[in-house]
Amino acid sequence: IYAILESKTSMDTDHTKLRTAFRLSRAANKNLFIFEFIGDFRFTLHYGQVLFLLRAIYRPHNVYCLSVDTKSSVEFLDAVRSVSKCLPNVFVASKLESIVYAGFSRLMADINCMEDLLQHPIKWKYVVNLPGQQFPLRSNLELVKIFQVYNGANDVEGITGKRMMAMRFMWRHDYVTNNVTGDVRLVSSGIKNRPPPHGINIVKGSAYGTFSRDFIDFVINHQIAKDFLEWCKTVLSPDEYFWATLHHSKVVNVPGGYTGVPDTKPWLSTYASWGGGGDPCATIRIRSVCIFSPEDLPLLINRKEMFANKFYITHHPAVLHCLDQLLYNVTFSGSTRDLKQYQDLPFALKTSLKL
Questions:
Q1: Where's it found, cell-wise (predicted)?
Q2: Three-state SS sequence of 1-61
Q3: Would you please indicate which residues are annotated as catalytic (active-site) residues?
Q4: Which of 18, 102, 244, 277 could form a disulfide with 237 if both were Cys (CB 3.0 to 4.6 A apart)?
């Protein structure tokens, strides 16, 4: 079961081998929720890491949407598409984006997958939005139990005050192309942005979170969400404002939303060790985020978040293998760890949800 993901570094598209690698996942609890697996794979992600993550979260009753930067190599894109040929519940988004760092295309990669997922015949309950550099800290059964506690509530980070980086949305940002390299980046135009539509108050948060089906339906179809998405086109890193703002909005009754103080609410979708935040990091940081190594394992295995970010399979891959083995052991023991701590979360809805 580990052969392809541990020993193969080439883009092996043999469908028989891929099916064998994912066979272990069929022993899981058959409760429906969705992992939406998206990210910019062109620069930082090895194909082996794509498979390593997908195999860790894969269950035949869930649905998985993969989004790849159109600037990726043809070889890489073909390799990712081969997974969908092997596994019927894995698909590549019907519309792919040419990703610009901190640009609107990054947000649209998420939106495109979510539009496809709403049309999928499986009536899923939750979307988990993941970049390719994350890895689960909880087993599939544990995640299902956590979502039962959430009961339709979303789990979205919320930041207000000085940490909002207000200059990103107060000023219009334009795309500028380097005439020599062809690279595209966003720069401030020096022109003030118009206020957000409908009197929405901006909240910052991570692009990655856990979203209920009703929330995704709201994001895709409600006019307020559509108007806010249009406004986000001139924002720097709009994916760090779009989800958090809608989730915490008091302007409209958002499904699974939270109207309390964003900064005091726990956020358990993802753990990351940021420089300056006081969290330890055993080896290196990239853009202030720790790239985990085996020395970080004592910290990781005691976290209560569902996923951790970031891992590079080319940087101390043993940490991924150790976490993978831990999840394997937890899965086949049928155990669940420390679920009581989720029951008193302020954003969890208080009636029983059947998944």
A1: Membrane
A2: CCHHHHHCCCCCCCHHHHHHHHHHHHHCCCCCCEEEEECCCCCCCCHHHHHHHHHHHCCCC
A3: 240
A4: 102
Interatomic CA distance for residues 323 and 53, integer angstroms = 11
Q: Delimit the domains of the chain by residue range.
A: 3-158+263-342
Q: Write down how long the chain is.
A: 355
Identify how many contiguous H helices and E strands the chain contains and give both numbers.
11, 12
Return the structure tokens found at 254: 């958002």
Q: Which of 113, 193, 142 is nearest to 331 (CA)?
A: 142
Rg of the chain, C-alpha, whole Å:
20
The pair of structure tokens assigned to 68 is 């790849």
Q: Pairing between strand 64-67 and 90-92?
A: parallel
Which residue type is seen at 90?
Answer: V
Please choose, from the candidates 5, 19, 2, the residue with its C-alpha nearest in 3D space to the C-alpha of residue 82: 19
Residue linked to tokens 């009753």: 61
CB 83 within 8 A of CB 76: no
Mean pLDDT of 316-339: 94
Sheet with 307-309, strands from edge to edge, namely 134-136, 307-309, 270-271
What is the tens place of the pLDDT at every residue in 8-36? 334 444 555 555 555 544 444 444 455 55
Whole-number mean pLDDT of the chain? 87
Across 154-171, average pLDDT: 97
